[in-house]
Amino acid sequence: MAKTRDYSTLLEAWSGWRNAVGPPSKQLFSRMIEINNLGVQSAGFHDTSEIWKNELGISNLENIVDDLYATIQPLYVQLHAFVRGRLSAIDKTGVVHSDRPLPAHVLGNMWAQNWEPILPQLLPTAALSGGEDATQVLRRRYSSFNQLVVVAQDFFLSLGFQPLPPTFWSRSQFVRPNDGRKPVCHGSATDFYSQEDVRLLMCGKINEDDFYTLHHEMGHLYYFLTYSHQPFLFRSGASSAFHEAIGDTIIYAAMATKHRHRLGFVSTGNKTNPKDLDIINLLRQALVKIPILPFSLALEKWRWGVMAGQIKPNQYNQAWWNLKLKYQGIVPPIERSEKDFDPASKFHIISNTPYIRYFLSSVLQVQIFQALCEASGQGPRFGKPLNQCDIYGSIEAGNRLREMMSLGSSHPWNVALKVLTHEENPKIDAQPLMDYYQPLHEWLVIENRRLNYTIGFD
Ligand SMILES: [Zn+2]
């Protein structure tokens, strides 16, 4: 999905995957929902969504996420308009229309949740280059996936974290084993609850996507290690959203222009002027970090509806696409019916993993990034834009982060957030995210107006 831009090949992959996994799992899924609900009802809850919402320790969770998204939506709508305008302008096949919702298969990702692979198509001219192709750079420099793990670890070491323990290196699975075993390959990090036995499971390949996934998983691993002195019951995150946010905060730092230079992702001979390069890099980050917000919101609203019985099995697929259209402005590329079960194409639906944590994490990670940025003496408080912040090598930023992480779940999440932000009554707040992307947001508004691109997907 990331590599080819041939729309018929993409459609084949998109529908092939959904045909393979959807229909066989629909009945099993609805039965699982029934059984889950029987279990929680015997404990006095209405349905499973109630427990899933409670887990985050945020009262009125649904209103809170709606409010957060209301702040972010104007940015998403501009990004969506720009992507659609650019794709339709270069599309000779009539698949992408300039004023209709985006078809789900053309965005560089099986689930349309990360649009970064289509960045080259979005750049206005070939002369404007976002730098080197990071995957090519990684393949040139490194011959084994282990080396990539070392590079990801290096960012954490620069913040004063200890090297991962020897058992991590000997007991993890970094790449797909070639001895006939067929493991689940979805990347995961696991705490074995000794003082230092933490492990990674991946079927990693040397490419940009997996490189950043490593940072994400390493955030979990270092969180496990940093609270390992706590009693067993407190050895988890301030909330699951915090657990997801740590590694992604580091991804923000690692994707910053300065660090991309350090990694050799921007060649020294690059002729693009620095201001354009900054906008391109913000666009790259936005393509990774912004579509996941409406994606995760639509996904979990669907599942809450299913669990609460508001969405019946004979409405599963239609309700899924209704929410995708409403929040993401995306439609299926071919006709769908209730014979299809497209939610099953996503790992977290089939593995029954709660998902709103990823929405909250996407907001929280920029708040944490801002706090670390300030701890290192940079950022808005020091008159510098948040997106220019470079925390690599900052022990002060590392100390601030470790102070929060070492709490585990011994305190409510707002105490953990206070340790980071030093605010009296901190809330989960989308403003740092909007500040981070503010120059890009402005640029998108101007470009969309100049190019007369349709805005919105009502
Ligand atoms: Zn994770």
Mean pLDDT: 94
Largest sheet: 2 strands, parallel
**How many helical stretches?**
19
How many domains comprise the coordinates?
A: 1
Supply Rg: 22 Å
What can you see in these coordinates?
The protein is mainly α and 458 residues long. It has a single domain (1-134, 222-458), classed as Neurolysin, domain 3, CATH 1.10.1370.20. It has 19 helices and 4 strands. The strands form 2 sheets. Strands 1-4 form a two-stranded parallel ribbon. It has a two-stranded antiparallel ribbon with strand order 2-3. Helix 15 (356-375) crosses helix 16. The longest helix is centred in the N-terminal third of the chain and has 35 residues, at 7-41. The chain is globular. The mean pLDDT is 94.
Pick out its properties:
458 residues; Neurolysin, domain 3; 19 helices; binds zinc ion; two-stranded parallel sheet; mainly alpha
Summarize the helices and strands and which ones pair or pack:
Layout: H1 7-41, H2 48-54, H3 61-90, E1 102-103, H4 119-122, H5 134-141, H6 145-158, H7 166-171, E2 188-191, E3 198-201, H8 208-226, H9 240-255, H10 257-262, H11 274-289, H12 292-307, H13 316-328, E4 330-331, H14 347-350, H15 356-375, H16 395-405, H17 413-421, H18 431-436, H19 438-450
Parallel strand pairs: 1-4
Antiparallel strand pairs: 2-3
Helix pairs in contact: 3-19, 6-8, 8-9, 9-15, 12-13, 12-15, 15-16, 16-17
What's a quick, concise take on this entry?
With 458 residues, this protein is mainly alpha-helical. The longest helix has 35 residues, at 7-41.
